[in-house]
Amino acid sequence: MKRQYEEVLERFLKIEEEIGYPQRHSKEAFQKLLEEYRRLKKVADLIKELEEVEEDIQAIEELLKEEWDADLERELEDLKHRAKTLDERIFLGLIPKDPRDEGNAILEIRAGVGGEEAALFAADLAKMYLKFAERKGWKVSITDFTESDLGGYKEITLLVEGKGAYGLLKFEGGVHRVQRVPITETSGRIHTSAASVVVLPEYEDVEVDIKPEDLKIDTFRSGGAGGQHVNKTESAVRITHVPTGIVVTVQDERSQHQNRAKAIRILKARLKELYENQQEEELRRIRKIYVGSGDRSEKIRTYNFPQNRVTDHRINFSVYNLQEVLNGYLDEILDALIREELKRRAETLPQGTDSPL
Protein backbone atom coordinates (compact mmCIF):
# COMPACT_ATOMS: atom_id res chain seq x y z
CA MET A 1 0.00 0.00 0.00
CA LYS A 2 1.17 3.54 -0.74
CA ARG A 3 2.81 5.27 2.17
CA GLN A 4 0.42 8.24 2.04
CA TYR A 5 -2.55 5.88 2.38
CA GLU A 6 -0.99 4.36 5.47
CA GLU A 7 -0.66 7.88 6.87
CA VAL A 8 -4.35 8.48 6.19
CA LEU A 9 -5.33 5.32 8.08
CA GLU A 10 -3.05 6.25 10.99
CA ARG A 11 -4.62 9.72 11.17
CA PHE A 12 -8.13 8.25 10.92
CA LEU A 13 -7.52 5.77 13.76
CA LYS A 14 -6.03 8.52 15.91
CA ILE A 15 -9.09 10.76 15.39
CA GLU A 16 -11.41 7.80 15.99
CA GLU A 17 -9.75 7.32 19.37
CA GLU A 18 -9.83 11.04 20.22
CA ILE A 19 -13.55 11.49 19.57
CA GLY A 20 -14.14 8.84 22.23
CA TYR A 21 -12.96 11.41 24.79
CA PRO A 22 -14.84 14.65 24.03
CA GLN A 23 -13.96 16.02 27.47
CA ARG A 24 -10.35 16.42 26.32
CA HIS A 25 -11.30 19.08 23.77
CA SER A 26 -13.06 22.38 23.57
CA LYS A 27 -16.42 22.44 21.82
CA GLU A 28 -14.89 24.04 18.71
CA ALA A 29 -11.92 21.65 18.58
CA PHE A 30 -14.18 18.63 19.02
CA GLN A 31 -16.45 19.80 16.21
CA LYS A 32 -13.44 20.08 13.89
CA LEU A 33 -12.36 16.57 14.87
CA LEU A 34 -15.84 15.25 14.00
CA GLU A 35 -15.79 16.98 10.63
CA GLU A 36 -12.34 15.53 9.84
CA TYR A 37 -13.50 12.11 11.02
CA ARG A 38 -16.50 12.16 8.68
CA ARG A 39 -14.31 13.28 5.78
CA LEU A 40 -11.65 10.65 6.36
CA LYS A 41 -14.01 7.76 7.13
CA LYS A 42 -15.16 7.46 3.52
CA VAL A 43 -11.56 7.52 2.34
CA ALA A 44 -10.42 5.07 5.05
CA ASP A 45 -13.14 2.61 4.01
CA LEU A 46 -11.96 2.83 0.41
CA ILE A 47 -8.34 2.29 1.47
CA LYS A 48 -9.31 -0.83 3.44
CA GLU A 49 -11.23 -2.12 0.43
CA LEU A 50 -8.21 -1.44 -1.79
CA GLU A 51 -5.99 -3.34 0.66
CA GLU A 52 -8.28 -6.39 0.39
CA VAL A 53 -8.31 -6.20 -3.41
CA GLU A 54 -4.52 -5.99 -3.54
CA GLU A 55 -4.26 -9.07 -1.31
CA ASP A 56 -6.59 -10.96 -3.70
CA ILE A 57 -4.48 -9.82 -6.67
CA GLN A 58 -1.33 -11.10 -5.01
CA ALA A 59 -2.94 -14.45 -4.19
CA ILE A 60 -4.19 -15.00 -7.76
CA GLU A 61 -0.81 -14.02 -9.23
CA GLU A 62 0.83 -16.67 -7.05
CA LEU A 63 -1.65 -19.28 -8.28
CA LEU A 64 -1.07 -18.33 -11.93
CA LYS A 65 2.66 -18.82 -11.48
CA GLU A 66 1.97 -22.46 -10.70
CA GLU A 67 -0.69 -23.07 -13.37
CA TRP A 68 -2.35 -20.81 -15.97
CA ASP A 69 -6.14 -20.64 -15.75
CA ALA A 70 -8.38 -18.58 -18.04
CA ASP A 71 -11.01 -17.88 -15.36
CA LEU A 72 -8.37 -16.76 -12.89
CA GLU A 73 -6.78 -14.55 -15.55
CA ARG A 74 -10.12 -12.81 -16.18
CA GLU A 75 -10.69 -12.42 -12.43
CA LEU A 76 -7.21 -10.92 -12.10
CA GLU A 77 -7.94 -8.33 -14.79
CA ASP A 78 -11.22 -7.40 -13.09
CA LEU A 79 -9.46 -6.99 -9.75
CA LYS A 80 -6.74 -4.81 -11.27
CA HIS A 81 -9.40 -2.58 -12.85
CA ARG A 82 -11.20 -2.35 -9.51
CA ALA A 83 -7.95 -1.48 -7.73
CA LYS A 84 -7.25 1.30 -10.24
CA THR A 85 -10.75 2.73 -9.76
CA LEU A 86 -10.42 2.61 -5.95
CA ASP A 87 -7.01 4.28 -6.12
CA GLU A 88 -8.49 7.15 -8.17
CA ARG A 89 -11.45 7.57 -5.80
CA ILE A 90 -9.13 7.65 -2.78
CA PHE A 91 -6.86 10.29 -4.25
CA LEU A 92 -9.73 12.48 -5.41
CA GLY A 93 -11.32 12.13 -1.96
CA LEU A 94 -8.18 13.50 -0.33
CA ILE A 95 -7.90 16.65 -2.41
CA PRO A 96 -8.64 19.66 -0.16
CA LYS A 97 -12.07 21.11 -0.82
CA ASP A 98 -13.22 24.70 -0.93
CA PRO A 99 -14.37 25.52 2.63
CA ARG A 100 -17.29 27.48 1.17
CA ASP A 101 -18.70 24.35 -0.48
CA GLU A 102 -20.62 23.28 2.62
CA GLY A 103 -22.53 26.55 2.88
CA ASN A 104 -25.62 28.15 1.37
CA ALA A 105 -25.88 29.51 -2.16
CA ILE A 106 -27.47 32.52 -3.83
CA LEU A 107 -28.64 32.03 -7.43
CA GLU A 108 -29.36 34.99 -9.67
CA ILE A 109 -31.07 33.99 -12.92
CA ARG A 110 -31.56 36.56 -15.68
CA ALA A 111 -33.18 36.28 -19.09
CA GLY A 112 -30.72 36.95 -21.91
CA VAL A 113 -31.07 36.99 -25.68
CA GLY A 114 -34.47 35.83 -26.86
CA GLY A 115 -37.09 38.18 -25.43
CA GLU A 116 -40.16 36.44 -23.92
CA GLU A 117 -38.77 32.99 -24.75
CA ALA A 118 -35.61 33.79 -22.75
CA ALA A 119 -37.77 34.88 -19.80
CA LEU A 120 -39.76 31.63 -19.99
CA PHE A 121 -36.48 29.68 -20.10
CA ALA A 122 -35.25 31.58 -17.03
CA ALA A 123 -38.43 30.42 -15.28
CA ASP A 124 -37.72 26.84 -16.37
CA LEU A 125 -34.23 27.06 -14.88
CA ALA A 126 -35.62 28.46 -11.63
CA LYS A 127 -38.09 25.55 -11.41
CA MET A 128 -35.27 23.11 -12.16
CA TYR A 129 -33.21 24.41 -9.24
CA LEU A 130 -36.26 24.46 -6.95
CA LYS A 131 -36.93 20.78 -7.72
CA PHE A 132 -33.25 19.88 -7.35
CA ALA A 133 -33.13 21.63 -3.96
CA GLU A 134 -36.31 19.85 -2.88
CA ARG A 135 -34.73 16.48 -3.70
CA LYS A 136 -31.70 17.44 -1.63
CA GLY A 137 -33.82 18.53 1.33
CA TRP A 138 -32.69 22.15 1.07
CA LYS A 139 -34.79 25.22 1.84
CA VAL A 140 -35.29 27.72 -0.99
CA SER A 141 -36.58 31.29 -0.80
CA ILE A 142 -37.46 33.41 -3.83
CA THR A 143 -36.09 36.70 -2.52
CA ASP A 144 -36.74 38.87 -5.56
CA PHE A 145 -38.19 38.56 -9.06
CA THR A 146 -39.39 40.52 -12.08
CA GLU A 147 -41.99 38.74 -14.18
CA SER A 148 -42.42 38.98 -17.96
CA ASP A 149 -45.73 39.40 -19.76
CA LEU A 150 -46.13 35.66 -20.41
CA GLY A 151 -45.29 34.55 -16.88
CA GLY A 152 -41.57 34.05 -17.27
CA TYR A 153 -38.89 35.83 -15.30
CA LYS A 154 -36.78 38.70 -16.54
CA GLU A 155 -34.78 38.04 -13.40
CA ILE A 156 -35.19 36.01 -10.23
CA THR A 157 -33.03 35.50 -7.14
CA LEU A 158 -33.06 32.29 -5.09
CA LEU A 159 -31.54 31.82 -1.64
CA VAL A 160 -30.75 28.10 -1.24
CA GLU A 161 -30.10 27.05 2.35
CA GLY A 162 -28.69 23.61 3.04
CA LYS A 163 -25.46 21.73 3.71
CA GLY A 164 -23.37 21.52 0.56
CA ALA A 165 -25.63 23.77 -1.53
CA TYR A 166 -22.85 26.01 -2.86
CA GLY A 167 -20.51 23.09 -3.50
CA LEU A 168 -22.95 21.66 -6.05
CA LEU A 169 -24.67 24.73 -7.43
CA LYS A 170 -21.46 26.67 -8.10
CA PHE A 171 -21.07 24.63 -11.29
CA GLU A 172 -24.28 26.19 -12.63
CA GLY A 173 -22.79 29.65 -13.04
CA GLY A 174 -22.68 30.83 -16.66
CA VAL A 175 -24.85 31.22 -19.74
CA HIS A 176 -27.42 28.48 -20.35
CA ARG A 177 -28.78 28.14 -23.89
CA VAL A 178 -32.09 26.58 -24.99
CA GLN A 179 -33.05 25.40 -28.47
CA ARG A 180 -36.76 24.77 -28.96
CA VAL A 181 -39.94 25.99 -30.67
CA PRO A 182 -41.26 28.92 -28.58
CA ILE A 183 -44.94 29.03 -27.68
CA THR A 184 -45.10 32.34 -29.56
CA GLU A 185 -43.78 30.76 -32.79
CA THR A 186 -46.56 29.91 -35.26
CA SER A 187 -44.40 28.46 -38.05
CA GLY A 188 -42.79 25.79 -35.87
CA ARG A 189 -39.25 27.14 -36.26
CA ILE A 190 -36.65 26.30 -33.60
CA HIS A 191 -35.28 29.35 -31.81
CA THR A 192 -32.18 29.74 -29.66
CA SER A 193 -32.51 31.75 -26.46
CA ALA A 194 -30.35 32.16 -23.38
CA ALA A 195 -30.40 32.93 -19.68
CA SER A 196 -27.50 33.62 -17.36
CA VAL A 197 -27.00 32.11 -13.91
CA VAL A 198 -24.77 33.69 -11.28
CA VAL A 199 -24.01 31.61 -8.18
CA LEU A 200 -22.64 33.23 -5.03
CA PRO A 201 -21.74 31.64 -1.70
CA GLU A 202 -23.50 33.06 1.34
CA TYR A 203 -20.83 33.94 3.86
CA GLU A 204 -21.92 33.44 7.46
CA ASP A 205 -19.11 35.59 8.83
CA VAL A 206 -18.34 37.97 6.03
CA GLU A 207 -15.45 40.33 6.63
CA VAL A 208 -17.19 43.23 4.92
CA ASP A 209 -17.50 46.61 6.54
CA ILE A 210 -21.05 47.82 5.94
CA LYS A 211 -21.53 51.25 7.45
CA PRO A 212 -25.11 52.36 8.18
CA GLU A 213 -24.46 55.70 6.51
CA ASP A 214 -23.54 53.86 3.27
CA LEU A 215 -26.98 52.29 3.01
CA LYS A 216 -30.08 53.74 1.42
CA ILE A 217 -33.11 51.73 2.57
CA ASP A 218 -36.52 51.98 0.87
CA THR A 219 -39.71 50.09 1.70
CA PHE A 220 -42.72 49.33 -0.49
CA ARG A 221 -45.64 46.97 -0.78
CA SER A 222 -44.79 43.48 -2.00
CA GLY A 223 -46.66 40.95 -4.11
CA GLY A 224 -46.20 37.19 -4.25
CA ALA A 225 -44.73 35.31 -7.20
CA GLY A 226 -47.42 34.92 -9.84
CA GLY A 227 -49.64 37.44 -8.08
CA GLN A 228 -50.66 35.06 -5.33
CA HIS A 229 -51.20 37.81 -2.81
CA VAL A 230 -50.64 41.51 -2.33
CA ASN A 231 -49.31 42.69 0.99
CA LYS A 232 -51.17 45.74 2.25
CA THR A 233 -48.23 46.90 4.35
CA GLU A 234 -44.87 48.17 3.17
CA SER A 235 -42.97 44.99 4.08
CA ALA A 236 -40.73 44.76 1.00
CA VAL A 237 -37.24 46.21 1.38
CA ARG A 238 -34.81 47.66 -1.16
CA ILE A 239 -31.28 48.36 0.09
CA THR A 240 -28.81 50.35 -2.00
CA HIS A 241 -25.13 50.23 -1.05
CA VAL A 242 -24.22 53.78 -2.09
CA PRO A 243 -20.39 53.38 -2.48
CA THR A 244 -20.73 50.46 -4.93
CA GLY A 245 -24.22 51.04 -6.33
CA ILE A 246 -25.27 47.47 -5.50
CA VAL A 247 -29.05 47.16 -5.03
CA VAL A 248 -30.75 44.28 -3.21
CA THR A 249 -34.52 43.84 -3.09
CA VAL A 250 -36.30 41.27 -0.90
CA GLN A 251 -40.06 40.90 -0.77
CA ASP A 252 -40.79 37.24 -0.01
CA GLU A 253 -41.36 37.61 3.75
CA ARG A 254 -44.41 39.35 5.25
CA SER A 255 -42.28 41.07 7.88
CA GLN A 256 -40.22 44.12 6.97
CA HIS A 257 -37.68 43.08 9.61
CA GLN A 258 -37.26 39.63 8.03
CA ASN A 259 -36.93 41.08 4.54
CA ARG A 260 -34.35 43.58 5.75
CA ALA A 261 -32.27 40.87 7.48
CA LYS A 262 -32.34 38.68 4.36
CA ALA A 263 -31.41 41.64 2.14
CA ILE A 264 -28.37 42.37 4.32
CA ARG A 265 -27.26 38.73 3.98
CA ILE A 266 -27.47 38.91 0.20
CA LEU A 267 -25.75 42.32 0.14
CA LYS A 268 -22.85 40.89 2.15
CA ALA A 269 -22.44 38.04 -0.33
CA ARG A 270 -22.46 40.41 -3.31
CA LEU A 271 -19.97 42.77 -1.66
CA LYS A 272 -17.71 39.87 -0.75
CA GLU A 273 -17.85 38.68 -4.35
CA LEU A 274 -17.03 42.18 -5.60
CA TYR A 275 -14.05 42.59 -3.26
CA GLU A 276 -12.70 39.11 -3.98
CA ASN A 277 -12.96 39.70 -7.71
CA GLN A 278 -10.99 42.93 -7.37
CA GLN A 279 -8.26 41.16 -5.38
CA GLU A 280 -8.06 38.15 -7.68
CA GLU A 281 -8.51 39.88 -11.03
CA GLU A 282 -4.80 39.78 -11.88
CA LEU A 283 -4.47 36.15 -10.77
CA ARG A 284 -7.45 35.11 -12.89
CA ARG A 285 -6.04 36.98 -15.90
CA ILE A 286 -2.73 35.14 -15.63
CA ARG A 287 -3.84 31.64 -14.71
CA LYS A 288 -7.46 31.27 -15.92
CA ILE A 289 -7.79 27.90 -14.19
CA TYR A 290 -11.45 27.11 -13.85
CA VAL A 291 -14.03 24.53 -14.86
CA GLY A 292 -14.25 25.87 -18.39
CA SER A 293 -12.84 29.36 -18.53
CA GLY A 294 -14.93 30.64 -15.64
CA ASP A 295 -16.13 33.54 -17.77
CA ARG A 296 -19.80 34.08 -16.95
CA SER A 297 -20.44 35.36 -20.47
CA GLU A 298 -19.46 31.98 -21.92
CA LYS A 299 -22.08 29.45 -22.97
CA ILE A 300 -21.72 26.54 -20.57
CA ARG A 301 -24.73 24.36 -21.35
CA THR A 302 -27.29 23.74 -24.09
CA TYR A 303 -30.80 22.33 -23.63
CA ASN A 304 -31.84 20.99 -27.05
CA PHE A 305 -35.52 19.98 -27.06
CA PRO A 306 -35.73 18.40 -30.55
CA GLN A 307 -32.87 16.03 -29.67
CA ASN A 308 -33.93 15.53 -26.02
CA ARG A 309 -30.33 16.44 -25.23
CA VAL A 310 -28.53 18.44 -22.54
CA THR A 311 -24.85 19.16 -23.26
CA ASP A 312 -22.37 20.72 -20.87
CA HIS A 313 -19.79 22.35 -23.12
CA ARG A 314 -17.12 22.72 -20.44
CA ILE A 315 -16.50 18.98 -20.38
CA ASN A 316 -18.21 18.00 -23.66
CA PHE A 317 -20.66 15.83 -21.73
CA SER A 318 -24.20 15.02 -22.95
CA VAL A 319 -27.23 13.27 -21.52
CA TYR A 320 -30.41 12.41 -23.42
CA ASN A 321 -33.02 12.91 -20.71
CA LEU A 322 -33.79 16.61 -21.01
CA GLN A 323 -37.12 16.51 -19.20
CA GLU A 324 -35.62 14.64 -16.25
CA VAL A 325 -32.89 17.27 -16.00
CA LEU A 326 -35.49 20.06 -16.00
CA ASN A 327 -37.31 18.12 -13.27
CA GLY A 328 -34.27 18.57 -11.04
CA TYR A 329 -32.27 15.44 -11.82
CA LEU A 330 -28.92 17.18 -12.29
CA ASP A 331 -26.85 14.54 -10.50
CA GLU A 332 -25.31 12.87 -13.55
CA ILE A 333 -24.13 16.17 -15.02
CA LEU A 334 -22.89 17.51 -11.67
CA ASP A 335 -21.03 14.28 -10.88
CA ALA A 336 -19.15 14.57 -14.18
CA LEU A 337 -18.32 18.23 -13.51
CA ILE A 338 -17.13 17.49 -9.97
CA ARG A 339 -14.82 14.72 -11.19
CA GLU A 340 -13.27 17.03 -13.78
CA GLU A 341 -12.87 19.78 -11.18
CA LEU A 342 -11.12 17.42 -8.75
CA LYS A 343 -8.82 16.13 -11.48
CA ARG A 344 -7.94 19.70 -12.43
CA ARG A 345 -7.19 20.58 -8.83
CA ALA A 346 -5.08 17.43 -8.46
CA GLU A 347 -3.01 18.54 -11.46
CA THR A 348 -2.35 21.90 -9.79
CA LEU A 349 -0.92 20.32 -6.62
CA PRO A 350 2.80 21.19 -6.26
CA GLN A 351 5.14 18.68 -7.89
CA GLY A 352 6.55 16.20 -5.43
CA THR A 353 3.47 16.29 -3.23
CA ASP A 354 2.96 12.71 -2.01
CA SER A 355 -0.28 13.33 -0.18
CA PRO A 356 -3.01 15.92 -0.49
CA LEU A 357 -3.50 15.86 3.28
Structure description:
The chain has helices at residues 3-18, 27-66, 70-94, 115-136, 165-169, 256-287, 322-326, 331-347, and strands at 105-111, 139-147, 153-161, 174-180, 191-201, 215-220, 236-241, 246-250, 299-304, 309-312, 317-319. With 357 residues, it is α+β, with helices and mostly antiparallel strands. Strands 2-3-1-5-4-9-10-11 form an 8-stranded mixed β-sheet, sandwiched between helices. Strand 9 and strand 10 form a beta hairpin. Helix 1 crosses helix 2 (27-66) and helix 2 (27-66) packs antiparallel against helix 3.
Give a nutshell description of this structure.
With 357 residues, the protein is of the alpha+beta class. It contains eight helices and eleven strands. The chain folds into three domains: 3-94; 101-206 and 295-345, 2-Layer Sandwich (Alpha-Beta Plaits), CATH 3.30.70; 212-279, 2-Layer Sandwich (Double Stranded RNA Binding Domain), CATH 3.30.160.
Number of domains: 3
- Note the overall shape: flat
CATH topology of the largest domain: Alpha-Beta Plaits
Helices, by number, come to: 8
Strands across the major sheet, in which order? 2-3-1-5-4-9-10-11
- Beta-sheet strand percentage? 15-25%
- Structural class by sheet pairing and helices: alpha+beta
What separation lies between the terminal Cα atoms?
Answer: 17 Å
Strand count, sense and barrel status of the largest sheet are: 8 strands, mixed
The total of beta strands comes to 11
